[in-house]
Design a protein that fits this description.
Rossmann fold, 434 Repressor (Amino-terminal Domain), 344 residues, six-stranded mixed sheet
Length: 344
């Protein structure tokens, strides 16, 4: 097992500098602090953050790391996780990565230092350096939730995002829409990639060729979606329907439609992935694909408990896939006259 001396040697600093950095004390430059944390990862050092955990081996606490706690989806997920964990006698530490892989990895280190019993993670990274860094946590119980990482040794609990995007696209095609836009989340995250795939499959099934000009990336942010929808609606041939890849982007889209003086669904139809409490309150009431968040949170905790009690850590990673539910409300209508036959 690596020691603080190993960290100091790898970082080329004193033991006192390593101790000050790990314990959050002042006086360590940003450059040296970065070297220390890089060395901590490199040698696999885990400082003991809680004295009690030295005796028990772990605490009655699990960690939940989400991408954006301001997103109602993650807020609801945290509530579902806490309910299931509490029923089993565990507390939950919720940490927000702000969709920044470096911050996420620092949070994972902190949770390991605190001797949490296990971690639920909605991963924010995807490249090889991120995957290598995350692989260093394979020695502890960790389950990926919402977003999947292929070829990694972690169980995952996810929703069928391809089906979610396809069902809403199929619906818009049946309403006669031929120019359908997709506002998507961050590229390379499994949720965004799968929803784009489902969107394209829905178009293809309806005999519609995908148009890259109608596929825009808003990074799952409301303000980005607002700006992009304004641009889409000022195209020479604007879309007659929009699929928004998450709840925040749906809100940005409906605000842009309203601010530009368009009526929904008379002028343009809008459907979103991720149902949320305001979907049936906003006018028009929003057509959405609902994710089974209570089931997602509960199943994730169950999978983590199974991982915590497993004796064979080398077993192949399992993926639990849950089905979404399509909710038709008022924000989608038939394509405006003159558009439904276009591009046939």
């Amino acid at each position: 097992m690596a020691t603080i001396k190993d960290v100091a040697k790898a970082a080329g600093v004193s033991i006192a500098t390593v101790s000050a950095t790990i314990n959050g004390k002042g006086g360590v430059s940003e450059k040296r602090s970065r070297r220390v944390w890089d060395a901590v990862e490199a040698v696999g050092y885990s400082p003991h953050g809680i004295a009690r955990s030295l005796r028990l081996g772990r605490t009655q606490v699990i960690g939940l790391v989400v991408g954006d706690i301001a997103n109602p989806f993650f807020t609801s997920l945290a509530k579902a996780v806490e309910a299931r964990a509490s029923a089993a006698g565990y507390s939950v530490i919720v940490a927000n990565s702000d969709e920044e892989p470096k911050k996420e990895l620092a949070l994972l280190r902190m949770l390991r230092e605190q001797r949490v019993a296990g971690i639920l993670l909605a991963p924010s990274g995807y490249d090889e350096s991120y995957r290598q860094a995350l692989f260093r946590f394979a020695d502890m119980p960790l389950v990926v939730v919402d977003r999947q990482l292929e070829d990694m040794p972690f169980d995952a609990v996810v929703v069928d995002n391809v089906a979610a995007a396809r069902v809403v696209t199929d619906y818009l095609v049946r309403l006669g829409h031929r120019r359908i836009a997709m506002i998507n989340g961050r590229p390379h995250l499994s949720t965004a990639d799968e929803r784009l795939r489902g969107f394209r499959e829905g178009l293809a099934a309806g005999g519609i060729e995908a148009d890259e000009d109608l596929e825009v990336v808003a990074d799952s942010r409301m303000e980005n979606a607002y700006e992009l929808v304004q641009r889409l609606l000022t195209l020479a041939e604007p879309p007659t329907a929009i699929v928004a890849g998450n709840n925040l982007m749906t809100l940005g889209a409906i605000q842009a439609i309203t601010d530009m003086g368009f009526r929904c669904p008379e002028h343009i139809s809008l459907a979103g992935i991720d149902d949320f409490a305001w979907s049936a309150v906003i006018r028009p009431k929003l057509t959405t694909v609902a994710q089974p968040i209570d089931q997602l949170g509960g199943s994730s905790v169950d999978a983590l408990f199974a991982c915590m009690s497993a004796t064979d850590r080398a077993a192949p990673a399992r993926v639990i896939t849950l089905a979404p539910r399509f909710i038709i409300r008022e924000s989608c209508g038939r394509a405006p006259r003159g558009h439904s036959e276009a591009n046939r």
